[in-house]
Write a structure and sequence with these properties.
The protein is globular. The protein has helices at 39-45, 93-96, 104-113, 168-179, 195-206, 219-228, 241-248, 264-271, 296-302, 314-326, 345-353, and strands spanning 2-5, 14-17, 27-37, 55-56, 61-68, 80-83, 123-124, 130-133, 142-146, 150-152, 187-191, 211-216, 232-235, 254-259, 274-282, 305-308, 336-341, 360-364. The strands form four sheets. Strands 3, 5, 6, 9, 10, 17 and 18 form a seven-stranded mixed sheet that branches. It is built from eleven helices and 18 strands. It has two domains: 2-168 and 312-364, Quinone Oxidoreductase, Chain A, domain 1, CATH 3.90.180.10; 181-308, Rossmann fold (3-Layer(aba) Sandwich). The longest helix has 13 residues, at 314-326. By secondary structure, the chain is an alpha/beta fold.
Length: 366
């Protein structure tokens, strides 16, 4: 098969021929149709998140089951599916507690070493050299992943529309449902209207937020946010964003502010935009070593809540999200602004690096 292989920080990925990966017990192989271009991949490409090389990135996969491993009974060859970027083992202490989004084995084996849960990769160059996997390694014609991260796409839903459900949408849902536990009528600010921010805006509307304030430095991205459901727009390059948010909310601030980029300036906006007793939910993945500041006395006096959110609980939440898509209440396809053929995969990430992507870019592979 062909795969986009990352070999060194700040070097372009190159498409190589790798051996077709085969699933082991509890796993499936997927013929990839499309894969979303995520900012977390970009952190790895830039060397901001340490990860072994050579590796295949890509963790927003839509495709068709090509092969099932021993013990897999709930999926069959030919099923149209999407994957969750978190691949819960279902066995560790965190999974047992219902905290699949922080599965210990996922972080130890995959995020730590680029391997699946037998401590081995499924990807190899023709000479047998191992190639590591970021999640399932979806920037390839075929990938292998535990069946716990694979979900059948409902009838009537276009496979080409739903790759991003597995990361940006799932990340947004986890932040809204589990970290913030957003209630109908709450006011929210979404700071950074990129891929995850776009999903936060869409889902905040589904959740019944009364005011959804999108904050970004790009008027083009803000226009896209408005189309997805933002009720108010703030360009933080032109105005004092926290002051503007307080003015929009009658001087009080929002109930929940979501930081959706992983950067100090956006964290500062979110931190300074919430009402007393409000929640600041950090969703964006920052480069390793990035630090935000806050005044401890202010946190205590204003009873602020600062929370982190890594994603949703895949086995509980992915079926919910796909049902919302099937019923037309959630339209991830509306956030897709660019599609790239597989041969132009590096161009997709170059455009993401330049800040040109509105919503989400998708790489069409199969």
């Amino acid at each position: 098969m062909r795969a986009a292989v990352h070999t060194a920080a700040n070097q372009p990925m190159r498409i190589e021929e790798l051996a077709d990966p085969r699933p082991k017990a509890g796993e499936v192989a997927i013929d990839v149709r499309s894969c979303g271009a995520c900012h977390t991949d970009l952190h790895v490409l830039k060397g901001e998140l340490p990860f072994p090389t050579p590796t295949v990135l890509g963790h927003e996969v839509a495709g068709v089951i090509a092969e099932v491993g021993p013990g897999v009974t709930e999926l069959a060859v030919g099923d149209p599916v999407v994957t969750s970027f978190i691949m819960p083992c279902g066995q560790c202490a965190q999974c047992a507690r219902g905290n699949e989004e922080i599965c210990q084995r996922f972080f130890e084996f995959n995020r730590g070493k680029g391997r699946l849960y037998d401590d081995e990769t499924r990807l190899f160059r023709p000479d047998g050299e191992p190639v590591w996997m970021y999640s399932m390694g979806g920037l390839a014609e075929r990938c292998v992943t535990p069946a716990t991260s694979v979900y059948r796409v409902p009838e009537g839903v276009e496979l080409a529309d739903v790759a991003s459900v597995g990361c940006s949408t799932m990340t947004a849902y986890g932040a809204l449902r589990h970290a913030a536990d957003l209630h109908v009528g709450d006011t929210v600010a979404v700071v950074a209207a990129g891929g995850v921010g776009s999903a936060l805006i869409q889902l905040a509307s589904v959740f019944g937020a009364s005011m959804i304030i999108a904050v970004d430095i790009s008027d083009e991205k803000l226009a896209g946010a408005e189309e997805l459901g933002a009720t108010h727009l703030v360009n933080s390059a032109e105005v004092d964003a926290p002051a503007a948010i307080r003015e929009l909310t009658g001087g009080r601030g929002v109930d929940v502010a979501f930081e959706a980029l992983g950067a100090v300036p956006t964290f500062n906006v979110a931190r300074d935009s919430v009402v007393e007793g409000g929640q600041v939910v950090v969703v964006g993945i920052a480069a390793r070593g990035t630090t935000g500041e806050f005044d401890l006395a202010t946190i205590a006096r204003r009873k602020l809540q600062i929370k982190g959110s890594y994603g949703a609980k895949p086995r509980r939440d992915m079926p919910v999200l796909l049902d919302l898509v099937a019923r037309g209440l959630l339209r991830p396809q509306d956030a897709i602004s660019r599609r790239y053929p597989f041969d132009q995969v590096q161009e997709a990430y170059d455009a993401l690096k330049r800040g040109e992507i509105i919503g989400r870019a998708v790489v069409d592979i199969g």
